[in-house]
Amino acid sequence: MNKEVVAHIENLEHTYSSGHKALIDINLDIYKQEITAIIGQNGSGKTTLSKHFNGLLRPTAGKIFVNGKDVASRRVSEMAREVGYVFQNPNYQLFCPTVLEEIRFGLKNLKLSDEEIKARSREVIEEFDLRGMVKKQPVTLSSGSKKIVALASVYAMDPEILFLDEPTTGQDQYGKTKLGLLSRKMKQLGKTIIIISHDMDFVAEYADRVIVMNESRVILDGTPADVFSNEEVMKTAHIMPPQIYAIGNHIHAVSSETRLSVMELAKVLAEGDYCL
Amino acid sequence: MSEYILELKDVNFKYENAPTVEEPALKNINLKVKKGEFIGVIGSNNSGKSTLCALCNGLIPKALDGEFSGQVLVDGQDIKDVSTAKMSQKVGLVLPDPEAQLSQLTVYDELTFGPSNLELPREKIFEEADRVMKLIRLENFKERSPFSLSGGEQQRVAIASVLAMNPEILVLDEPTSNLDPLSTQEIFEIICKLNREMNMTVILVEHEVELMAQYVDRFVVMDNGRIVLDGSPKEVFSHREVFEQIKMFIPTVTSLAGEIDEEYRKWGNYEYPITLEEMIKIIDSRKE
Fold first, then answer.
1. In this complex, is the C-beta atom of B284 within 8 Å of any C-beta atom belonging to chain A?
2. What ipTM, to 2 d.p.?
3. Is pLDDT above 70 for B1?
4. Whether the Cβ atoms of residue B110 and residue B102 lie closer than 8 Å to each other
5. CB contact B50 to A (< 8 Å)
6. What are the structural domains of chain B?
7. Distance (Å, rounded) from C-alpha B148 to C-alpha A45?
């Protein structure tokens, strides 16, 4: 199957006015309807890279194309329709008196008709299962619900690409699972998802592809199995692979194509079908 | 002197200004903490963990309104009988967001702020600030604004400023929830050092069970305002069914051993592993 490219990055560099080179020689294609995770230590360039997708930062060398069009020739306000951001802290994003108004806020800015706004917000409330809380004040919600409302309000604007910055911080198991499943759902509904995360268990479970950044460069790009079984790269990037991959690597039970699960690893261990 | 440095007896608490929440935040809490213990408190969001923290230093019932019943004893003394100033020297509280805790122009001011409020003599204030600055290795940041620091550095300053008060118990409410893995590890190591080398009693609320399993002596597991499990990491994680019921993760290696339970028992008389190192060791010894 041919994958459709939604963003194309060519020899991208970004040097801040301080002289710090935050991105060096970045070449990437981002594919439609994939969940791509970008991982790496703080300061490795993840956030700088993400800000190039909507033109908040402009390349100091190289190019980035979204939907075939050079971002350099487009305004940030234009790009906002194509690339949506969900911030790490939902409190920075939510400000309307009710959840319903929060969902409708972005749609109003898109200058849709009242009918269209109603129809779209109904759809989103359904898809994100928000019926029980439409009249509530976002500030009174639990941190998990806040995250979901923030996600829904960005999704409502129908961007091609959704950036999720640290979606799981402060979330419990229930919240994490819900965010993971919603990411999958958005993907099935046609969206391209890019997750920036330190939560390796979450990345291992939900990402289709993992990009590892270190000192302003992409140092590895592959499936979760490719990445988490590369012990050398994990060490360089100061990343602890999920326990499941640490054991999988130890008994040589990781293959590039399969996502390792507890069940699968348990089977290998129980059958004694491994070598050290 | 009491045998326990902290004792919670039949504590119930219901927030006054929580119109959407019908149920009490804490129900029938009984907890005894010995000097020098390192306790990890885990539970889903809204299970009562932060309320428990506020209880340990007297914020509840003194500053937060609600219906309170039961008794909290610090060092054998009922917290109702201890002034807030005295409590701040007994129990130090570190919050999830360091920016909510820091307020001064420089890191050093942050460290002297607490002791100044205790009306200590000038030399003693600097002595305390210098002590914690060394302990947490903040010398390089001394004159910096706390707000120019990274999240991990800010959290270290917050911990140091609390330690400047010389508390007997350190309570940390999700101190690493906004930090990257390297800073998280660093904070864990600092906490561990305080516990092991200075015999500091630590109560740590966190979501990172795999990391906590490497450090804590004891886990307290909360669900819906109650303590549902309380014991050593091994004991607690052997109740896999409870964690399943309250929808909480246990270390992957523990789930793994549980998944192959029958086979695992044949491997030898091993307890369930709770850290990666243990599991690797068991797997290795089996192949030898």
1. yes
2. 0.85
3. no
4. yes
5. no
6. 6-250 (3.40.50.300)
7. 19
Alpha helices for B57-180 (secondary structure H): 59-62, 84-90, 107-117, 122-135, 151-163
> Across the interface, do A243 and B253 touch by the CB < 8 Å criterion?
yes
Between CA A108 and CA B253 the distance in angstroms is 49
Confidence at residue B224, expressed as pLDDT on a 0 to 100 scale: 94
The CATH architecture that domain A5-224 belongs to is 3-Layer(aba) Sandwich (3.40)
Distance CA B40, CA B233 (A): 9
Radius of gyration of chain A (CA): 20
DSSP string, B32-90: EE-TT-EEEEEE-TTSSHHHHHHHHTTHHHHTS-EEEEEEEEETTEEGGGS-HHHHHHH
- Strand-pair partners of A83: A161
CA nearest to A172, candidates A140, A196, A144: A144
Residue with tokens 């909290």: B72
Q: Which residue has the higher pLDDT, A222 or B271?
A: A222
What are the φ and ψ backbone dihedral angles of A238, each rounded to 5 degrees?
Answer: 55, 45
- B173 neighbourhood in chain A, CB within 8 Å: none
pLDDT at B19: 58
- In this complex, is the C-beta atom of A140 within 8 Å of any C-beta atom belonging to chain B? yes
Domain boundaries, chain A: 5-224
What percentage of chain B reaches a pLDDT higher than 70? Answer: 98
Return the half-sphere exposure (C-beta side, CA atoms, 13 A cut-off) of residue B107.
Answer: 25
